């Protein structure tokens, strides 16, 4: 009898030791750091069980091969309630922290930045390159976006709020665009309600269109309002806006990087050298600063502006003064081109395009708001002004 008791006690002791050893091993595994040395994105497919999870983590060298992983999930059931998804793992994270993250369902978020001043087609290319995003748009045409989001053609270009947006894996490109569109609709509505009285806008689309012109003309916050005042003054006097970015937008794929007199005289729906008033819609996605400038322009007498060679513009009230400012700019560009040539480097962008500028800027040329600004002959005005 005593032998049986001793044998039983021995078994109990051995079992207790094994259990204690198992508990220690599982706790040691739970507290051990992951094998990763840099941030890692891990995707747990839907329907994965405990065995599949362990196999994936080991095969991807996230955790070490261990007999005790299954024991850990049994010993701590809360850690076994993992959810499918894509997660961000960081160096120093322990096995327990990994399992807690999988159980929380807090998937990794990825940023995508929509930049003001760009065209919607450029945003669509950004979305194409965004990792883990689900693409529902079949192409990068504005008409495709309009149809997918049930927008009218006038509510496509420009009607998206520039910002950095966060998304999780397998979120759709359309859902991000819908967020940006709804934010811009709300912002434009708020600005429209608080706009100055007497502005020559028929509707919110024209306000947004003006903001897009401002956005493409200058990057200087100090100039946005003055640019707006020039366009407002010209609209009130019945003068054509004659701003180069509208010509470039109207040309679309036909724009080769240089504007000629023929381009300025070629009719398009957006060419403000030809059409009166504002173009039918925005030519880019404006910033909130440009939207505010369009809604609250200062009172000035300016009707013209031209690049001053220092990243900004010279504003004038009459054509004679404007032509003198243009000549100052040209002289500066010729000087810069000569200095660049003597130094053996490429000439300044504006200087390289000066022949195009001169063709559109002769004294007999039409009077223009930006004077067929030589800063943009051969390039987008944003680039010319270091925007």
Structural description of this entry:
The chain has 387 residues and is mainly alpha-helical. The protein has three domains: 61-106, no CATH class; 109-190, no CATH class; 198-342, no CATH class. The protein is built from 16 helices and six strands. It has helices at 2-31, 50-59, 69-75, 95-104, 120-129, 142-148, 173-193, 204-217, 221-237, 244-251, 261-265, 288-295, 319-343, 349-352, 354-360, 381-384, and strands spanning 40-44, 85-89, 109-113, 164-168, 304-307, 313-316. It has a two-stranded antiparallel ribbon with strand order 1-2. It has a two-stranded antiparallel ribbon with strand order 3-4. The chain has a two-stranded antiparallel sheet with strand order 5-6. A hairpin with a 5-residue loop joins β5 and β6. α1 crosses α3 (69-75) and α8 crosses α9. The longest helix is centred in the N-terminal third of the chain and has 30 residues, at 2-31. The chain starts with a helix and ends with a helix. The model is unreliable at 7-20, 346-367 and 371-387 (pLDDT under 50).
